[in-house]
Amino acid sequence: LDSTKSEFRNISDVVLIDRWIDPLTPMLRQSTFGGVCDELFGIDSRGIIKIPAEESPDDKPDKSKKEEFEEIQLNDQVYEQLQDLSVGGVALKLREIVDELKGEELQRKSLDSVAQYKNFIAKLPNVVVKRKSTGIFMRLAGVVQQRESDDFYRGLLRCEQEIMRNPQHDKIHPFIENSLIEMREINSILRLIILQSLISNDLKSSVLQTYTKLIVQSYGISELKLLLKLQLAGLVKDENFCEKRWDVSYTPGNFNQLIRKYKFVLTDLDELRKTEVKIGKPSLLIRILEEGLQKEWIDFNKTLMETTTENNSNFQQKD
């Protein structure tokens, strides 16, 4: 969000959503250029990402500064046109922007009056900023594509797709097993374990025990604590999971059924990277909200009212 802009959008409804309605989407790798930038580099609250200096898209870094990272500001008119595109579509859009800049340069050569020159000079600062920004994002797109070509990153995407299309609670996924043995980035692997657990409704005890053993052997006790916290949150569970024992206050949904109900499917990885248009695949949460809008929130209000009434009744009984 750019705080310098004074534009306001008309908001007709505000929907408060329990995050347990859709815990799947945060576990999936993002597909848009903006989402991938966030996955790889992390967009902070100021709309800034930090690129390792050795990968920096800056052609002329200041060698007098021994900085480990280069900052790139994403609150930018060029980035706004790129953030919702697939990574494969960014190059095409940047080419269009470059053609626009060339057109403006040709237009300058054809100016023949004082009024036209004044108009052009007024636009010149914006043109200069746009040209510089385009160069930065062309190089950033190259960095992103290079990162995505990494075998581990592509393996994460393929494993995610395999789990979504064919969830198996009783089998250890080879990619997860090998990644744990190789001590790969733990948060990415845990997301896959969560995904397998949620979509399968649970993991076979022997499968979860194997994952747990590998985590301890490769990463130590600190990461085991993280896995236990995920179990406490209900994101990872085995067939012996007991809601009362873990003090779970929600009713876990059948996410495999929800995926089929809302026709939530993943685009093939290779096709996704080739596409040159906006990615139109909505999250599971968006599908659910669309249904709420179509039904005018009737079922949603009923569920909320019943839950509130039940909680009030339980509270009075305790008193």
Category by helix and strand content: mainly alpha
SSE succession? HEEHHHHHHHHHHHH
Instruction: Output the strand order for the largest sheet.
Output: 1-2
| SS field, number of helical segments | 13
The quaternary structure here is single chain
The biggest sheet, with number of strands, parallel, antiparallel or mixed sense and barrel status, is: 2 strands, antiparallel
Overall mean confidence score, pLDDT: 79
The residue fraction in helices comes out at 55-70%
Stretches where pLDDT is under 50 for at least 5 consecutive residues are 272-278, 303-309
What radius of gyration results from the CA coordinates? Answer: 25 Å
| End-to-end Cα distance | 45 Å
- Strand fraction equals under 5%
Tell how many strands the DSSP assignment holds: 2
GO biological process, one term: vesicle-mediated transport
Pfam families: Sec1 (PF00995)
Family: Belongs to the STXBP/unc-18/SEC1 family.
Q: What are its keywords?
A:
319 residues, two-stranded antiparallel ribbon, 57% helix, 13 helices, mainly alpha, globular
Describe this structure in words.
The chain is mainly alpha-helical. The chain is 57% helix and 3% strand. It contains 13 helices and 2 strands; from the N terminus they run αββαααααααααααα. It has a two-stranded antiparallel sheet with strand order 1-2. The longest helix has 35 residues, at 114-148.
What topology does this entry show?
Elements: H1 33-41, E1 48-52, E2 69-73, H2 77-82, H3 87-109, H4 114-148, H5 151-165, H6 174-181, H7 186-200, H8 205-219, H9 221-232, H10 255-261, H11 269-274, H12 284-294, H13 298-318
Antiparallel strand pairs: 1-2
Helix pairs in contact: 3-4, 5-7, 6-8, 8-9
